[in-house]
Amino acid sequence: MQAINLTDHFLIAMPRLEDSFFAKTLTYICEHNEQGALGLVVNRSTDLSVEKLLTQLGMSPQDPALSNLPVLLGGPVQVDNGFVLHEPVGAWRFTLSSNVVTGLTASIDILQAVADCQGPEKILVALGYSGWAAGQLEQELAQNAWLTVPAQSRILFELSFEERLPAAMKLLGIDFFNLSNEVGHA
User: One Pfam family for this entry, by name?
Assistant: First the structure.
């Protein structure tokens, strides 16, 4: 069996996915290799804005638009840690490149740059991440827990978090409400 690589793809939770955290989620896969996968849920927000988060970290945000940018709940792993998905990749400490333009950074330097209006052009800030051990995601895919589709920057950075799941579904020509819990074969 040939290994799959879902880096820079969306995972769309199927209705039958029994894990309540991932129900009706859209997850962006930042890295997927033989050791496992790492991603961020990109359609579930917290009650915290990026402006409030930066202020809580002792920073003085300069951009008023940050008060309208929600912090996302990226996943159930390390929910006390922040992760910034951004374009362009840039030269931040602790950055993982998902593709030539999109990076995931888990260091304070990028947050300080965002507060000072010197950060990347496009950002999503999340608390926590989603992780899969080696072979775990492949097993979940075989159980029809997820649909996959190549990610689009437009969906990540130009749409509100509520619009992201339906937009990703539309890439597949599917309406989420038409999905069934039942698996069948033709």
Answer: DUF179
Q: For residues 104 and 156, what is the distance between their CA atoms, to the nearest angstrom?
A: 13
Structure-token match 């849920």, residue found: 41
Dump pLDDT digits (tens) for 94-106: 888 887 789 999 9
Question: Per residue in 140-165, pLDDT tens?
Answer: 999 989 999 999 999 999 999 999 99
Measure the CA–CA gap between 65 and 186, rounded to whole angstroms: 50
Q: What is the CATH number of the domain that holds 159?
A: 3.40.1740.10
Q: Count the domains in the chain.
A: 1
Phi, psi of 28 (to 5 degrees): -95, 125
Q: Is residue 4 part of a domain?
A: no
Residues 6 or more apart whose Cβ sits within 8 Å of residue 82: 53, 71, 106, 111, 125, 126, 127
Q: Structural domain of residue 110, as residue ranges? A: 9-178
Please name every residue paired with 13 in a beta bridge, in sequence order, or none if there are none: 146
Q: Is residue 166 part of a domain?
A: yes
Other Cβ atoms closer than 10 A to 126: 26
Spatial contact of 172 and 151, defined as CB atoms under 8 Å apart: no
Instruction: Show the tokens assigned to 63.
Output: 């951009």
Does a structural domain hold residue 2? no
Whole-prediction pTM:
0.91
